[in-house]
Design brief:
heterodimer, A: about 110 residues, mainly beta, six-stranded mixed β-sheet, four-stranded antiparallel β-sheet, 10 strands, about 0% helix, B: mainly beta, globular
């Protein structure tokens, strides 16, 4: 079983704000990172570290954390944001990488 | 710009082994690892292990310990992932990715390699 827990599915109305969460003990020590994956494509890093966006990622994507929970917020969701989103971090030992189970985002 | 180019799709028999390569170019890997992540059909991402090419330091996920071997050629920055004793449940897309070791984020990904295990 994954050490990071995500809700399997979330939906948001077009143009509204949505938060996707990720829980796990390792998030008390390590930042959660976030990936977007569309069907048939490799994952794309959208948020890393405290709240950093790689080049080319729109600023409607942001990250935050509190305690054992990391969150990805999409402010003004667009149709093209419909995808699977995965969180990851190091595990509690710091030796390994772990992923959450993924959240399927539907934009209505 | 960093590019990771993986070897092509494979079809393997149960009980056999598969070796997937991942050639990196266009960036620095001195403080990075190359991780291997797989995704079974309709399933999530699963980290298998990683290697720091400069030092040859390897880490494996407990689930794959003893069945996976990750190596790297630091002169060409090419990583290899070999998975043995294949079974049908190993049918998946296998990705390599550059991993920032301190925070565990994977910033560049290969295109993926489909490995199909079928008799």
């Amino acid at each position: 079983s994954s050490e990071l827990t995500q809700d399997p599915a979330v939906s948001v109305a077009l143009g509204q704000t949505v938060r996707i969460t990720c829980q796990g003990d390792s998030l008390r020590s390590y930042f959660g990172n976030w990936y977007q994956q569309k069907p048939g494509q490799a994952p794309v890093l959208v948020i890393y570290g405290k709240n950093n966006r790689p080049s080319g990622i729109p600023d409607r994507f942001s990250g935050s954390s509190s305690g054992n929970t990391a969150s990805l917020t999409i402010t003004g969701a667009q149709a093209e944001d419909e995808a699977d989103y995965y969180c990851n971090s190091r595990d509690s030992s710091g030796n390994h990488v772990v992923f959450g189970g993924g959240t399927k985002l539907t934009v209505l | 710009q960093v590019h990771l180019v993986q070897s092509g799709a494979e079809v393997k028999k149960p009980g056999s082994s598969v070796r997937v390569s991942c050639k990196a170019s266009g960036g620095t890997f001195s403080s990075y690892a190359i991780s291997w992540v797989r995704q079974a059909p309709g399933q999530g991402l699963e980290w298998m292990g990683g290697i720091i090419p400069l030092f040859g330091t390897v880490n494996y996920a407990q689930k794959f310990q003893g069945r996976v071997t990750i190596t790297a050629d630091k002169s060409t920055i090419t990583a290899y992932m070999e998975l043995s004793s294949l079974r049908s449940e190993d049918t998946a897309v296998y990705y390599c990715a550059r991993e920032q070791v301190a925070d565990g984020y994977l910033d560049y990904w290969g295109q993926g390699t489909l490995v199909t295990v079928s008799s």
